[in-house]
Specification:
Elements: E1 3-4, E2 22-24, E3 34-36, H1 44-53, E4 58-61, E5 64-67, H2 76-79, H3 83-96, E6 119-127, E7 133-137, E8 140-144, E9 152-160, E10 164-174, H4 200-219, E11 240-241, E12 244-245, E13 257-259, E14 267-269, H5 278-293, E15 302-303, E16 306-309, E17 312-314, E18 320-325, E19 328-333, H6 345-357, E20 362-365, H7 372-376, E21 383-388, H8 391-403, E22 409-413, E23 430-434, H9 443-452, E24 456-461, H10 464-476, E25 479-487, E26 497-504
Parallel strand pairs: 8-10, 20-21, 20-23, 21-22, 23-24
Antiparallel strand pairs: 1-6, 2-3, 4-5, 6-7, 6-9, 7-8, 9-10, 11-16, 12-15, 13-14, 16-17, 18-19, 24-26, 25-26
Amino acid sequence: MGHVVPRAALALPLDPGGLPVGFALGVSAGQSPLHRLDDLSLGAIPRLLFDHFGAGDRRKGESGTTNCKTGFHDYSTYWHASYSQIRAKANRSVLSGKNSGMSIPPKHFRPEPFDYHEVIELEIDSLSNLGAGVGRIDGWVVFVPFCLPGERVQARIWKNEANCSQADLLAVLSPSPQRQEPRCPLFTKCGGCQYQHLAYQEQLRWKRQQVGELLRHMAGIDHPVNELIPSPQPWNYRSKITPHFQKPRSDKDLAIGFLAVGSRGKVIDVPTCPIAMEELNAALPAERKRVHQTAGKFKKGATLLLRATTGGVSTNPREVVEEKVGNLTLRFLAGDFFQNNPFILPQFVEHVAREASVESRFLVDAYCGSGLFALSLARHFKEGVGVEVSESSADWARQNARDNDLLNVTILAASAEQIFAQVNFPSHQTAVVIDPPRKGCGPEFLQQLFAFAPRRVVYVSCNPSTQIRDLKEFTTHGYRLITVQPFDLFPQTKHLECVVTLVREES
């Protein structure tokens, strides 16, 4: 059980009724006089705050920016702050060893159970599916990023939600034996990775556990989850990266990289990325230099593209690139979607093939793209159909079928409303593979799928939360969960790819 730093340590004496009778405005009670509230008139308190925090200091309150130079009245924001906020100020001063100033909470900050920027200590007992450490104080859940189960940490509250709080990590007081040195110096600043500080085998264990918890809590299904299939290459595995930048103010201020942790707008400058393939990192300096040299021509931000392809790196989203998966050679546009970890793809695809081909003679790949599953699985089936709503992607899938001499696969371009309209296979002998976007399957698609009623469904997803949400629909339409197999296509991050197999019960 964690605990809040005791009041006594904050130089906040209490009267018999538990109310603060004074507060210290220095680093500690020994360095600043203890001012009794009953010794100060209402008019003296703003002056005391003004003197302590310093003339010219600017603070942001609910009504906007307050300038201490303009007089006592402008400091009313601070006087109307609660005693708990003053306590939090003393708290931070004592723990940090310096006078850090009072933090004013955002306008809609929930005041309970913790004050804004209150410093707490707690034990971390698990990891969330977003990669944050999970601890509890008196049963109340607190999420703290970049810490590990078994660690005791010091954290600072920045948000209270309806049933939990969010905090920033200040210090690891007792490190986990599973903690390792992050490979990237930008870890905790760049928002791309969440687990570089965690030993790889532990990453796999926690990701597996999180899939099981999602099954139980979201779908009400208690089913074994197979051990994660690890990536053969846990570093330098990504075959595609998309660094971006905001509207440049000057060449010197131009950051080219990825979003900062917890930000939707701030970009962290990333000159090299340890999870990107080595050839991408080798090509990145030239792309960065090109952007810096032409920064003045950009009226707004832009996104770069670096995609590995046979014989080099493509930076043009309209350029045709090539990827080998087992014995297949697949061609598509560099900007199109394709799985970004080529090192694990052969195992990944083979698993889907084994699961889909059990007691099935026909295959439907309902989100076929450029043909990854439809063509990779073709040899396991008498006949297959790939369905794609994008005419351009369907064209590439057809070309890839011809280039690989796969004559038993037909590629259809169909509207979202008629995915199965041209599929004439007997449903009881058909397996359907689905690999939807992160948002999962829409109701319209599921309606069509259940109407077609294939015997077997292999559901591939990069977002287990939406996948397991959809599983509830499958179970209500007569499908039984057979296998849950996660793959670690994204080492060092919170993401994973999960493959579930479902079979329709005979009526």
